[in-house]
Amino acid sequence: MPDGNLVLLTGLLASGVRLSMAIGFAAIGKSVAERSGMINVGVEGIMLVGAFLATFGSVATGSPWGGVVLAMIGGGIMAAFHALFVIKLRINQIVSGIGLVILGLGLSGFLYRLTLGATPVEIPSFQAVKLAPLSTLPVIGPALFGQNVLAYICVALAFLVGWFLNRTAFGLQIRACGENPEAARAMGISVSRIRTACIVFGGAMAGLGGAYLAIAQINSFVEDMVARRGFLAIACVVFGRWRPVGALAAAIGFGLAEAAQIRLQTRFPNLPYQFLVMLPYLLATVALVFSSRSSVAPHALRRSALPG
Amino acid sequence: LGFQITVVGTSHGAAIYSGLRVKTLIVVAMTLSGGLAGLAGAVEVAGIQHRLEDNFAAGFGLSGIAVALIARLSPSAVPLAAILFGIFYAGAGALQRRIGLPFPLVWIVEAITIFAVAILHWANSKRTAYA
After folding, report:
1. Which of B102, B106, B112 faces A113 most closely, judged by CB atoms?
2. Would residue A81 be called left, alpha or beta, if left means φ above 0 and alpha means ψ between -120 and 50 degrees?
3. Do A98 and B102 touch (CB under 8 A)?
4. Which among B54, B62, B73 is positioned nearest to B37, based on CA atoms?
5. Shortest alpha-carbon distance between residue A73 and chain B (Å)
6. Cβ-Cβ contacts under 8 Å, B59 against chain A
7. Reported pTM
8. How far away is chain A from the Cα of B120, in angstroms, using its nearest Cα?
9. From CA B5, how far away is CA B110, in angstroms rounded?
10. What is the pLDDT of residues B29-83, one digit of tens each?
């Protein structure tokens, strides 16, 4: 392979991984919530609020970690709101989710224009951490060992959450709520309490995903910047078969497609770029069609009515 | 056809037992809905803006879902809900021009409306359940 292609491939892998982490965070959180039997289509809105809060928080505290904490708290609060509606008031999950998307769009844009919008400021953000010898490895070095702190945290979380779901008693209780809530209740598990916890965790993770986007990937807040990544995270959960690690893998696959798409734009300048922008989504749709055939969805996922 | 679609949506099982072609009906309903969404785009371009721009219908699709939800999925209530949202848009635009309130406020108002309608629905069902 000539040198130029090698450089291209190296860059492609590195930016693919970088582009996928925001979706990855959200997808990990969402896979937990869906395992407990709850769907939250409002991830998009939570990510937007997370992105804004991360920007605001890191400017206010002068440290990106302040932004991360604020984004996770905000995401958790929004998700708790969702939980209140769907579990306590038993409102349709999709209705509440769409409400969250629109609310997030409004809140983030409104607050941004009121606070930071007028004055351009420098936003403290995460820089790439190069694990010295490893990041110079050819081709895979920058992709695996040249990311920022949050990306490493994301990968670690995927495995940790996966282990938690499959190997701990609490993880088993979560899965029981998603597969057969009646049986879980008969076992003396408080289904609604566990589901609330899972939704709030999913919200905090979605907030973190938004934070990644704002202070690790793009390093600024732009209105509507999540740009449907929240919906892609939902697709990633399905594609990853409701496993956190699988969901992250699906997110990375999408990130790679996104990175490839950006590079193809320079290769085919005559093609309208919108066509290439569309490609990753087309890919996701086709992939979903094929993966849904052998679906292993939690059994209680679409029934919002639960006993007691 | 309309009734058949409603049956599929309300009770999947009943639809299968009564011999309806569930999958075909779902495809038909989706196609109709897609066609109407396309018509909405055509109206916006041909009737209001008279030119095709990138992203000309920013957020309208999402508002469309919101309108359908507020109308409680009944087509006859949709125009009312749609006009209400149209007023929101016009009002938010005016507020921004007059006193400089940021336009995204309109989304917050929309979301609150959705949740308010959902809560009203919940309160109603609760009352009838105990009556």
Report:
1. B102
2. alpha
3. no
4. B62
5. 20
6. 105, 224
7. 0.85
8. 10
9. 29
10. 888 887 887 787 777 777 666 666 665 555 676 777 777 777 777 777 777 877 8
